[in-house]
Amino acid sequence: MGKRKKQAKILRIFRKVHRTTGALLFIFFFFISVSGLILGWKKNSNGYILPKTQQGTTAELKKWLPVDSLHTIALNTINNEVPNTSFKVDRIDMRKEKGSVKFLFVDSFYEVQLDGANGNVLSIGKRRSDFMENIHDASIVDDYLGTNGYIKLVYTSVMGISLLIFTITGFWLWYGPKRMRKVNKA
After folding, report:
1. Transmembrane ranges (predicted)?
2. Is pLDDT at 95 greater than 90 in this prediction?
């Protein structure tokens, strides 16, 4: 087989792999790209996608209330402001430099921001970015089916490998014809 025919055959294989992978995973790439775009804008959404971190009164931790006191305030606040919300705290995000602490709740995608020093409520906000992250990495399916992270692991592996395949085949679909033209001229 001649060099040109061999290159043309490789190009056809790469085109088929690229086309098939794209067709099979189109909907997943769509969700990843849209959710990724939204997540990229989360801090520039004027608090709509991700609530802005509020400023507390002091960054000196020794002047802050104990975490258990702040926790109680956060739970009371979410109970009063957002009834029928899960009271299980997912994580506590302490922003020393801002003098504030965020309590993020597991199922509701809400957060309560408190002043670390006096416990005053700085904001209560919906964290739409957390929901988007769950769509982006398929955690939403894991949570729904209760599969303990296995769907997310398979999904991110398949999508990462697919992106790598897309990159390689896409590059070759761009570079292969240029290389063939060079071989033709020689």
Report:
1. 21-41, 153-175
2. yes
pLDDT score, position 35: 95
In 3D space, the residue among 33, 38, 22, 99 whose CA is nearest the CA of residue 64 turns out to be 99
**Cβ–Cβ contacts within 10 Å for residue 130, how many?**
20
Q: What is the pLDDT of residue 100?
A: 98
C-alpha–C-alpha distance, residues 132 and 128, integer Å? 6
- Report phi then psi at 50, rounded to 5: -135, 120
Per-residue pLDDT of 67-81, as tens digits, reads 999 999 999 999 998
Among residues 113, 143, 144, 110, the alpha carbon closest in space to that of 128 is found at 110
Closest by alpha carbon to 141, among 116, 165, 158? Answer: 158
Mean pLDDT of 36-63: 95
- Measured between alpha carbons, how far is 17 from 37 in angstroms, rounded to an integer? 26
Question: Are the C-beta atoms of residues 28 and 141 closer than 8 Å to each other?
Answer: no
